[in-house]
Amino acid sequence: MKNRNETEALNELIIAEELKYTNDLEQLKDQFYVAYESMRPINLVKNLFHEVTASPEIKRDLVSNAIGLGTGFLTKTLLLGTLHNPVKKVFGTVFEFAVANLVSKHSDGIKLIGGNLLKHFFKKSKN
Known about the structure:
The protein has 127 residues and is mostly helical. Helix content is 91%, strand content 0%. The chain is built from five helices and no strands. The chain has helices at 2-38, 41-54, 56-80, 86-105, 107-126. Helix 3 packs antiparallel against helix 4 (86-105).
């Protein structure tokens, strides 16, 4: 009789281990699927885009750089116009990037001044 109880206990233990194995295997498959989906190129790009758009520091830097590049291009176009001389083109490009760098470093002050000027002009227009 004692032998039979030990056999039953052993069978119950085997069944419990098989259930645990099945459960662990399902969890492993689910985790593999999650890892596989996260490593797909389209999902990597989506995650990167969400991280970039979620970070206020990166947004501020992007806006500052866009303002700097736009200002540099506008300044070069207004001051130098279209250039045909290759040497002047090189100096114009260097000038453009110098202005873009300067503006992007001081974009907060420029935004403040620009906002005040816009308020001033719109205030005059209403009067």
